[in-house]
Write a structure and sequence with these properties.
Helices cover about 15% and strands about 25% of the residues. The chain is α+β, with helices and mostly antiparallel strands. The strands form five sheets. It has a five-stranded mixed sheet. The structure holds zinc ion (ZN). It comes from Latimeria chalumnae (Coelacanth).
């Protein structure tokens, strides 16, 4: 395919394609490796999912290529943190597990779809693939997700411009009989092609309908719908939400009505700069040391990150919180105080 200007295709899938075009590996849809001689008769539609343990967690054992630098490993772990904080999917260093994922720096950015059984490779070439969004795109493949625009119901959402597609890649636009899990089509999915993917002439290969200007693809990482789909596919019993925009509002469920008791994690991941969080209202039942109902805020995307606001309850508005970068994690515990109104907050991005 003809190279297209970077400004037109800076979504994650286009970044993947740009790297993979340099190699001859035979793949489907640009970045899906083809399994050889493995039986998958026990799986649905040929895709195998990872098993869920009795404790409700889906554990994926993995190894990391020793070629990755500490900085690259930190990017890969950072990509994994979002799954671990917001879904029931957990990654753990492989010890003796038979089925596991080998993260390697091989020829391009690619993965298999679902669990293949045994050791399976996921390639993140050092030059070009070790970016949060690309890591998450390939991890979503191993969880069993396909490319969003090949959903069986895609004709209602995108128009495929076959005349502009490189004929060698017609098959990359084939609809798949995947279960859509009752979720709505997600233009912002990390699994969506870009508007110019597989173009033979530099013109668009797909356009959103009815509004051609709808932004498609994903620039930074998982979308909030991607998270919801993982939780649905794996039946995760977790409450979580992801806020990937420059600014937005978040609040405890049903705020300010009394709610069912639950614990919830909110992750703010802005596209750049620092996260500012301001509470607009706050009313959590008081307990000694706020051991029952509380809000706790972390300067990062994991609970091991520095604490910006330690367990807080009562009715006093907490101060404005500023993260050191674009990530802020908010832990809301209310399982012991089902009648408390909760909180509402606003976040935005800034540099000072
Ligand atoms: Zn892909």
């Amino acid at each position: 395919p003809q190279a297209v200007p970077e400004k037109n295709d800076d979504d994650i899938f286009s970044k993947i394609l740009r790297v993979n075009q340099r190699f001859q590996r035979h793949m489907e849809q640009g970045d899906i490796a083809i399994p050889t001689g493995k039986s998958s008769t026990s799986c649905s539609n040929g895709v195998c999912f990872w098993p869920k343990s009795a404790d409700g967690l889906v554990r994926i054992p993995f190894t990391l290529d020793s070629k990755f630098t500490n900085k690259e490993k930190a990017i890969i772990w950072g990509a994994m943190h979002e799954y671990e904080m917001l879904t029931c999917v957990q990654f753990q260093n492989r010890t003796t597990e038979v089925n596991y994922v080998r993260f390697r720096s091989a020829d391009g950015c690619w993965s298999y779809v679902g669990k293949t059984g045994g050791s399976q490779e996921l390639s993140l070439m050092k030059a070009g693939c070790v970016k949060r969004g690309i890591v998450q795109h390939e991890i979503n493949h191993i969880l069993g997700f396909e490319h969003e625009q090949n959903r069986i119901d895609r004709a209602q959402y995108v128009k495929i411009l076959w005349q502009n597609i490189d004929p060698a890649h017609y098959s990359s636009f084939k609809e798949h009989r995947t279960s859509n899990l009752g979720t709505r089509y997600d233009y912002s999915s990390i699994m969506h092609y870009g508007k110019y993917s597989f173009s033979r002439n530099g013109l668009k290969t797909l356009i959103p309908i009815p509004d051609e200007n709808t932004i498609i693809g994903q620039r930074y990482g998982l979308s909030s719908m991607d998270i919801a789909k993982i939780n649905k596919l794996y039946g995760c019993n977790v409450c979580s939400d992801l806020f990937p925009e420059h600014s937005g509002n978040l609040q405890s469920r049903d705020y300010p009505s009394p709610h069912q008791s639950y614990d919830c994690m909110f992750l703010i991941r802005t596209p750049e700069e620092k996260v500012f969080l301001e509470f607009d209202s706050f009313d959590l039942q008081t307990s000694l040391g706020c051991s029952g109902c509380y809000v706790k805020v972390y300067d990062g995307d994991v609970k091991s990150a520095p604490v910006l606001l330690d367990r807080t309850c009562g009715k006093t508005l907490p101060p404005v919180l500023i993260a050191s970068r674009n990530l802020m994690l908010i832990e809301f515990a209310s399982s012991s105080c089902p009648t408390t109104p909760g909180f509402a907050a606003t976040y935005h991005t800034g540099s000072c």
